[in-house]
Amino acid sequence: MMYEFRGDTLLLYDIYHGLPDTDYGEMLVGGTAGNLYGTWTYTGCEYDKEEDETECYEKNLQYFLRTITFSKGKAEINYKVYFDRYVEDHSDFMNSYFMSQLFNTLGGNYPEIYLDEIWYMEASSVQATAQKIGAVFTSKTKSNATFELGGKTYTVNVKHMDMSLNREGYFIASENKEIQVEVSDGITTCTGEYISHYMNADYCKAEYKDNLRMDEWEDSNLGTFIAAERYRSNNEDDFEQCITGIAYKKYDPLDGYTYAKAAKTLAKKGYNASDRESRRERSLRKWAKYAR
Length: 292
Known about the structure:
The structure is a single chain. It is built from six helices and 14 strands. The protein is α+β, with helices and mostly antiparallel strands. Strands 1, 2, 3, 4, 5, 6 and 7 form a seven-stranded antiparallel beta sheet that branches.
């Protein structure tokens, strides 16, 4: 890595193929300006050196605290994770972005449902989307709901959820996730299942190879190797097709709401379905080589 100081702030840039990634510098404070040695605390902010811009994600600090203590020939990283608080804040499933996607699909918009979006809370989006398509909740808890839409009655029920803290390997302090959710129109029941676990010895077997997330890594000598980062399994395609089948209004690509239009609208809002996960993984990968 490359480091530099801006006032009393320590900036850490990862190095790719021998060059520092200066558009992504983590900002740490608490040590002595101009002296790397000491204990530094991650602020939740990133500095883009090329654009001279700072972007902060203070919300993440509600759930974890990361400190790094540098001494001669050694960097010690400590994580404190407030996991109970994290799980509680990410368990109001009926107010998640998954519900917005479900409403859009049932309402005849472009079918696009990602089961892992059930952990991202978007209460305002759910309310706005429900109002837009005319869905009315008749009952609602954190894990199930009943609503009326287009003369039909739908139920959503989270049958199984598990979120656990990964405590070993490269991706320590990240979360393993499992979800099973059922959506029914009273006649047909669609069941969605999603599992995402970071690698451990149990998954390091040939029988799981088709569900391993592979990526290219770079070692300290600038050599590259392919490694499995996590096990992931889902039935999103079948689930999405089933939801489309029970939608009160079928998607018509000729009605003007094409995928390109939807993508353009989301892009204008600065939304990318993989942004959150990509940013999280990038941060994890950055420290993976130090967390053995």
